[in-house]
From TrEMBL:
<dbReference type="InterPro" id="IPR000719">
    <property type="entry name" value="Prot_kinase_dom"/>
</dbReference>
<dbReference type="Pfam" id="PF00659">
    <property type="entry name" value="POLO_box"/>
</dbReference>
<keyword id="KW-0067">ATP-binding</keyword>
<dbReference type="GO" id="GO:0004674">
    <property type="term" value="F:protein serine/threonine kinase activity"/>
</dbReference>
<dbReference type="InterPro" id="IPR008271">
    <property type="entry name" value="Ser/Thr_kinase_AS"/>
</dbReference>
<feature type="region of interest" description="Disordered">
    <location>
        <begin position="1"/>
        <end position="25"/>
    </location>
</feature>
<dbReference type="InterPro" id="IPR033701">
    <property type="entry name" value="POLO_box_1"/>
</dbReference>
<dbReference type="GO" id="GO:0005816">
    <property type="term" value="C:spindle pole body"/>
</dbReference>
<dbReference type="GO" id="GO:0005634">
    <property type="term" value="C:nucleus"/>
</dbReference>
<keyword id="KW-0677">Repeat</keyword>
<keyword id="KW-0808">Transferase</keyword>
<dbReference type="InterPro" id="IPR033695">
    <property type="entry name" value="POLO_box_2"/>
</dbReference>
<feature type="domain" description="POLO box">
    <location>
        <begin position="598"/>
        <end position="685"/>
    </location>
</feature>
<dbReference type="GO" id="GO:0000922">
    <property type="term" value="C:spindle pole"/>
</dbReference>
<dbReference type="InterPro" id="IPR017441">
    <property type="entry name" value="Protein_kinase_ATP_BS"/>
</dbReference>
<keyword id="KW-0547">Nucleotide-binding</keyword>
<dbReference type="GO" id="GO:0000776">
    <property type="term" value="C:kinetochore"/>
</dbReference>
Amino acid sequence: MASARGQPLQALGERELNSRAQITPLKSTRKLEADVYEVKAPKESVPKEKPKKKKEKLSALCKTPPSLIKTRTGKDYRRGLFLGEGGFARCFQIKDDSGQLYAAKTVAKASIKNDKTKTKLLAEIKIHKSMHHPSIVQFIDCFEDDINVYILLEICPNQSLMDLLKKRKLLTEPEVRFMMVQIIGGIKYMHNRRVIHRDLKLGNIFFDADMNIKIGDFGLASVLKGTNERRYTICGTPNYIAPEVLTGKKTGHSFEVDIWSIGIMLYALLIGKPPFQSKDVAHIYERIKINDYHFPPDKYISDSARTLIEHILKTVPGLRPSLDDMLLYEFFTTGKFPNKLTVETLVAEPDFSYLTESQSHMNFLQAKRDSGLIQSSHMTPVEILKTDLESEKPKTLLPQSLSPGNTKSKYKEVTEPVLKQRTSEDPANSKLGRARRLEDHGMPYKQSRGHRNKSVSNAILRQECTNILNGMVISERQARIRASSRLPEIEPKTPILISKWVDYSNKHGFSYQLSTDDIGVLFNDGNTLLRINHSSSFWYIVNNPNEGWLAQEYSTTDAPAHLHRHIEITEFFAKYMKTNLCKVSNDDDSIMDQDEIFLRRYTRDEKYVMFEMSNGSVQFNFKDHHKICISQTGCTITYISPDRVCKTLALSQVFREGGFREIVEDIGLEEKLDMIKCALKEKIHASLD
């Protein structure tokens, strides 16, 4: 946590609060970090700052809370020692009746002088409150008294990455790999919920008691209504601001600004200072615009780290690697990777010489799993509602929607839980990806406000086609810019495929068998029954245009009467496919730890059959018996040959090499990929009509 001048907050026995002040004026600084909230200039260039009268900090209006802080809900807190202050808030340690410690970010109501400032504060609370991820500082509660607004956050006792760098001067690559995987996991979670952080920096990345990463301070965060929306406010911290932010209204900025910040942090941790560091802010901005940085010859940095940083710090946002792409780089896939960090890391360089290549590989995979980077699931985008910004009671600032009574329930996030490996002994563990689960006894799922009177199903399909198409375009572009360097291969992983299918839509529907041996029938009414292999349960998935896909799990021995006919039809197709059809690909045990998925939509064309799966991927079965699956991000391709040999690679690598190296025959890959792009475009345009 940093103050307005970039200094760390006062520590309390080696403990520091995990969130800096929300609004901080732009100032020139010689420190590693300088805070900035909102800047109306520059337009073409940033003029040198003229001496100004020193303004009183808004945090100075914040009176010290009483020793006993009483809330309207009856839960009281005892104030501890002062932790520090920023430009907008003061921070205190507080304790509840059970002795649990929290960090209390305290904002004076007197400092909230207009609707704009109030909106910023309430938006920060709403966004942070809606975040639930192991790499994000946990929002606990918020309340107010007559003088202050209090934001309660989990305590991060081991300070920030900024403090660590100041003590250690620079870090080793194994440490940085571990930290960056957790950071990338947290950022991917935010981006999946359409939130841009916009102030990612070392001072806003904290360590919990177990030395795991926690991203904090959502004071500059913004929610995008759509993936193509842009923001135009010039904001951030000078050393970390992306070049497209400085252009303001000319181009706007989006999720790529957080990608840029990852590159800055990576450089700073390995070299010891940010790449564009200068004595004044104007010079920092000029260096950022022209990409003027270099790697000091007296500081060691591996070629793999240098390559990753160079690719992230591209001036053109579209040329930067995606979060998923970063993890494919040699910097992450090779080299030592610890299974955890210890508190000794805070004061001394750790010894990782004991780590073997296989241990490092397993630790890398586990870190990705723990950070949510392997299992992909649909997440409800954050939404700022009018009720989040307007209080229902006079003389109060916090609306009811953000008040303590609603903290854990009103905006409970709807996500798909991670699937454990399926076993016949434990069918209850079965979870279905990409479909919301109905409440008990088949009661309808509550309709979300943002989806009323809209075709949510079509919107989801359109967005997923758009994501794949954009990813394919970016992969092709990355293949060109990486032509001079070796592209790291991805970890081989067989996707879930449709291995058999029968089109009986003239009477019942479209039946298919997955490579997991799950059997599904997409009935003519748009609903699906998915029978789980080695289990006594099945899913019935209703396609509700206004709410998307809603799923309920049943036992085959206790199925409702209205589904008996559906079960009979599914069993008929299962026996038929087992007897008469052969599978698309060979069995692979790696598919057993993936989500159960289902077919959302299929399209039959003269040259191919297109399958759109619930995990966002698409599969094309071509007439010549070659098959291609493209991942939901558009960055991974799986090819299945007519003799059922399966190969998975990064699509950018396939573009760069002009095909699959191990496949000698001409499979017409370029033509097939063009057909896939055209099919995706047609789906996108058709859904807009």
